[in-house]
Amino acid sequence: MSIYLAYYLAMGLLSGFIAGLLGVGGGLILVPLLVWLFSMQGFAHESNMLMALGTSLGVISITAISSVRAHHAHGAVNWNTVKHILPGILFGTLFGAWLASKLPNTFLHHFFIAFLFYAATQMLLNFKPKAHRNLPGYLGMSSVGSIIGIVSSWVGIGGGTLSIPFMLWCNVKLHQAIATSAAIGFPIAVAGALGYVFTGWSVSHLPAYSAGYVYLPAFATIASTSIFTAPIGARLAHRLPVNVLKRLFAALLYALGIKMLLG
């Protein structure tokens, strides 16, 4: 177990640093690494993907707190947008976690790979959609929130890869879109993690020290280290060539996607 705890510590340091540096959630890195480590530990193959998703969302629910507080302190969060999208986010994330437990493991595996390629391409091209309209009303925001919640629960992320482009498309300024996305990511992560806890609670083949599909040793260890490196990454973001780093990170996501595709 000690060697795996060392791996989890390293994963926390890496995911926190990347989240702070590039403004993306660590889930894109955590999920494939957790799948690999869970396989190395001999956990049941049919539950590895679900456990990776649940554990990743659990970690994000902790690390998102400091990010939201920082953005709120700068007055950048549009809480009215958060209020309008929240019902859809909660419904979509909880429903997505429940549905994930009913779907074949291979579907989730390939869905995550496809999302990795999408996220890598978005980052490589530095894609920012042209603004065309304003944010929709309550019903429209709830509908969009449901979609973001479902997809986020299936890939173990806080949703920024989807919510930021949506808000930019709706004429929201970039800094406000990033801050509001961070605030939206917190309920996504909490609802998603709880969803995976409840749907896996009665599953018998899960390893010891699991709360449903959340593996507690990995959750606690990764979260405890990522909260220290995220601020370091955020400070370096103003000094390093972030566009170059984003391209390197995109290449890493492509490599992870290809590795998962090849098994």
UniProtKB/TrEMBL annotation:
<feature type="transmembrane region" description="Helical">
    <location>
        <begin position="50"/>
        <end position="70"/>
    </location>
</feature>
<feature type="transmembrane region" description="Helical">
    <location>
        <begin position="6"/>
        <end position="38"/>
    </location>
</feature>
<protein>
    <recommendedName>
        <fullName>Probable membrane transporter protein</fullName>
    </recommendedName>
</protein>
<feature type="transmembrane region" description="Helical">
    <location>
        <begin position="177"/>
        <end position="201"/>
    </location>
</feature>
<feature type="transmembrane region" description="Helical">
    <location>
        <begin position="107"/>
        <end position="127"/>
    </location>
</feature>
<dbReference type="InterPro" id="IPR002781">
    <property type="entry name" value="TM_pro_TauE-like"/>
</dbReference>
<comment type="similarity">
    <text>Belongs to the 4-toluene sulfonate uptake permease (TSUP) (TC 2.A.102) family.</text>
</comment>
<dbReference type="Pfam" id="PF01925">
    <property type="entry name" value="TauE"/>
</dbReference>
<keyword id="KW-0812">Transmembrane</keyword>
<keyword id="KW-1003">Cell membrane</keyword>
<keyword id="KW-1133">Transmembrane helix</keyword>
<feature type="transmembrane region" description="Helical">
    <location>
        <begin position="213"/>
        <end position="232"/>
    </location>
</feature>
<keyword id="KW-0472">Membrane</keyword>
<feature type="transmembrane region" description="Helical">
    <location>
        <begin position="82"/>
        <end position="100"/>
    </location>
</feature>
<dbReference type="GO" id="GO:0005886">
    <property type="term" value="C:plasma membrane"/>
</dbReference>
